[in-house]
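W.,

You were right to be curious about this one. When I first looked at the sequence I had no strong expectations either way, so I just let the prediction run and decided to look at it fresh. Below is the sequence, 160 residues in total, followed by the output.
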Amino acid sequence: MKEIAQSLRDTISFILPQLRQISDAEAALKPRPEKWSKKEVLGHLIDSACNNQQKFVRTMQQTHLDFVGYQQNAWVALQRYNEADWTTLIDIWVAYNQQIAHIIEHADPSVLEHTITIEGTGPFSLSFIMADYGEHLKHHLLQILPHADLKSGFSNVYNA
């Protein structure tokens, strides 16, 4: 799990300067009315971090967990991420993901095969959802920065 945690830290380090170059106004632009702005995508990634922290810690506590689903469009709309300050969103995203990396790095190997179902889908092992978290993160970071070179910019074991 140390490699997965380090990959997440590398992702943060690689992408952070690029996120900081985006202006607040640019981050608020919606490519189409039904599509998320960069602020809303980053807000979704904050929500993902919050939800995944819960999944990780709760799944560590028991051999199987049934977890609620996440209504991503409603969460993004209700929190009005497009009206939030871009720099603040970046800072929250960085801090939450540093904590997620810490959790992943220090996960006791004895709990990695604990399972979780999410709104009836699964079961998935804790090790799988921890590894998948970074892949989901990269997918959405490419929405914000479509020209980011994710393969050379990250030391992700899954891009090798």
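Here's what jumped out at me. Residues 38-61 form the longest helix (24 residues). And, maybe more interesting for your project: The chain has one domain: 2-153.

Coffee later to discuss?

I.
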